[in-house]
Amino acid sequence: MGEQFAIVFDVAVVATVVCMFFAGWRMGFAKVILSMLAVAVAFFMAMMLSLPIAEAIYNNHIEKPLTQKTEQAVDSSLAALHLGNFSAAQFDKVLISGTPVGEIEPNYSGTTNAVFDLTDLNFSEVGLTEENRETLGLSEEFDLSSVNAKTADFTKEEIEKYGLGKLAFAQFAAVSLIQKGDLKDFNKYIEIVGSYFPEGRNYGNSDNITVSVVRKLVLNMLETNSTVKDTVMQNMIRPYCVIIIRTIVFAVIFTIVSAAIGIAANATKLLEKVPVIGKANSFVGGIAGACEGIVIIFIVCLATRLAVSLCDGNVLLFNQATIDSTFIFKRFYEADFLNFVSNT
Question: How many CB atoms lie under 10 A from the CB of residue 107?
Answer without folding.
Answer: 11
